[in-house]
Design goal:
By secondary structure, the protein is an all-beta fold. The chain contains no helices and 5 strands. The mean pLDDT is about 90.
């Protein structure tokens, strides 16, 4: 078990995943984003949707936007659909996956 240096708690459960930032050799760095898990059907991968505001200078207003991020889901965190999570950027794990889930913020309601 190791502290990954992002100010997140290490999970109580352990795992033997090599792509786990806590128990494996994957380093998490740079961007840290929050979002909601909208799909957890893939093996060790979740889809995280995040909403944000984008400023439109022509109209001097903000518009709502959303993006979906594919993130690696370590087994020790036990993340499911509907959970609020925090993801951190890491090296590319596959073609689409370049983020890893580092913290479960709130369980699904």
């Amino acid at each position: 078990m190791s502290d990954i240096g992002l100010g997140v708690k290490t999970p109580k459960k352990t795992c033997d995943d090599t792509n786990c930032p806590f128990h494996g050799h994957l380093s998490a760095r740079r961007k840290i984003l929050d979002g909601k898990v909208v799909s957890a059907k893939m093996a060790k991968t979740v889809t995280v949707e995040r909403d944000y505001l984008h400023y439109v200078p022509k109209y001097a207003r903000y518009e709502k936007r959303r993006s979906r991020i594919m993130a690696h889901n370590p087994p020790c965190l036990e993340v499911r659909e509907g959970d609020r999570v925090r993801v951190a950027e890491c090296r590319p794990i596959s073609k689409e996956v370049a983020f890893v889930v580092v913290e479960k913020l709130a369980p699904s309601s």
